[in-house]
Write a structure and sequence with these properties.
This protein is of the alpha+beta class. The protein is about 40% helix and about 20% strand. The chain contains twelve helices and 13 strands. Strands 1, 2, 3, 4, 5, 6, 7, 12 and 13 form a nine-stranded mixed β-sheet that branches. The chain binds alpha-D-galactopyranose. Alpha-D-galactopyranose binds next to helix 5.
Length: about 425
């Protein structure tokens, strides 16, 4: 039997992790950190590629996150050390330039440059970074890094941003400084997460609605461990095809296209563009429908919506790889599965399953064995919890505080929607 445990198990224990990060800080910078910031990764439960089409996404900010231990400096130098890649960077806050190697450094530089560009008072600092979001796996490790950095700069500078504005600035850093034309999904998930809830995000007006997932359902990430090398170019191509579809249909974004309108005017579109539009229009509607299904524990609806989503991603949007098809088969054959589908941009990386809580262990074992037999690759399969968004935290109290919030949210009724937030 295969071990499907994620590699860095020690890091999932908050106390051990805090000790490890503090020790790295001490060793690298020769002093003690004074501020701790964190921000989560995310897994999308429904709504692939709907964000840049201004549609709906149902997203789960997850209990895999990026931590930064930091200390202010008296000058305008930023020194960072990433424990995940065991490498550092050093730059001055004046005239920040991008680098051509080690792209993670551009995320750090990009966030600093973007916040500086907004006229926010940044201080120089030393920072040790550690992430439990697996890199390059479709769970937004880059957004977690960006949002944790912005939170750190705010904490050290003594100012604050609304989570909405922070998300938009981090997206700007990624779009303009790093040069990745992502939508808003990743940064919004990382900044607006609420412990215990998924979020239904309306990418047009950027309103979010907290969505409770019924107690008996667990969200399980299934990482194919197959690299996503082609995703950059393919992502840009999908985006361009959607824009072409919207332009030909005379709307500013596919969000404005209803299924009826698309059916009536489909012939005006080139075949491939029509298929992309079919997927996006249906997928956005599925995100809206999966939200109440998860709260009401409507497993049949959840299964159907996930199956439609995967079929569309494979046949219409064409973002599936052979490894994803093998993982899908393994997930659907495993005990306790409710529904399964792709996650992130596709083209490899992680997938996601909704699993009957009592069968989680059996599900993990079965998927691990079946996927390995089919592909000879060893997957990572682990359940995730809905996590709080980016925040400064007290490392001494993180376990106690988390347990308290969990206990309190268990006492709350389970409404379909709790609270709404919109951009200022
Ligand atoms: C990537 C992008 C997001 C989103 C997803 C697909 O994660 O960064 O903005 O487009 O792909 O839903």
């Amino acid at each position: 039997m295969l071990s499907t445990k994620p590699a860095a198990d020690w890091a999932l224990d908050s106390e051990a992790r805090a000790e490890g990060v503090a020790a790295c800080f001490r060793e690298t910078f020769g002093s003690e950190p004074e501020l701790w910031a964190r921000a989560p990764g995310r897994v999308d439960l429904m709504g692939s590629h709907t964000d840049y089409n201004l549609g709906f996404v149902l997203t789960l900010p997850i209990s895999r996150d990026t931590w930064i231990a930091a200390r202010r400096r008296d000058d305008r130098t930023v020194r960072v050390h990433s424990m995940n890649v065991d490498a550092g960077d050093e730059f001055r806050l004046d005239g920040i330039e991008s680098v051509s190697e080690s792209r993670w450094r551009n995320y750090v530089r990009g966030v600093a440059a973007t916040l500086e560009g907004e006229g926010l008072a940044l201080t120089g600092c030393d920072a040790a970074i550690h992430s439990t979001v697996p890199l390059e796996s479709g769970l937004s490790s880059s957004a977690a890094l960006e949002c944790a950095l912005a939170t750190m700069f705010a904490g050290l500078g003594g100012w604050s941003l609304t989570p909405e504005r922070m998300a938009l600035l981090c997206q700007k850093a990624e779009n303009e400084f790093v040069g990745v034309k992502c939508g808003i999904l990743d940064q919004y998930s990382s900044c607006l997460g609420r412990e215990g809830c998924a979020l239904l995000l309306d990418c047009r007006d950027l309103a979010t609605r907290a969505v409770r997932v019924a107690d008996g359902i667990r969200v399980v990430v299934c990482n194919t461990m197959s690299p996503r090398r082609l995703s950059g170019g393919e992502y840009a191509r999908r985006r361009a095809e959607c824009e072409e579809g919207a332009a030909r249909l005379g709307v500013s974004a596919l969000r404005d296209v209803t299924p009826e309108m698309l059916a009536a005017r489909r012939r005006e579109l080139p075949e491939r563009v029509a298929r992309r539009c079919d997927f996006i229009v249906a997928e956005s509607g599925r995100a809206e429908r999966l939200a109440p299904a998860l709260t009401l524990n409507d497993r049949e609806a959840a299964a159907r919506l996930c199956a439609e989503s995967f079929a569309g991603a494979r046949d219409l949007y064409e973002i599936c790889s052979p490894a994803m098809a093998a993982m899908m088969e393994a997930m659907l054959a495993a005990p306790g599965v409710i529904g399964a589908r792709q996650a992130g941009a596709g083209f490899g990386g992680s997938m996601v399953a909704l699993v009957d809580a009592a069968s989680t262990d059996a599900f993990r074992t079965s998927v691990g064995d079946a996927y390995h037999s089919a592909t000879r690759m060893v997957p990572e399969i682990y359940p995730v919890e809905a996590a709080q968004g980016a925040e400064v935290f007290d490392k001494e109290k993180i376990n106690v505080a988390r347990a308290l919030v969990r206990a309190m949210s268990a006492l709350l009724p389970t409404p379909a929607a709790t609270g709404r937030s919109s951009v200022e």
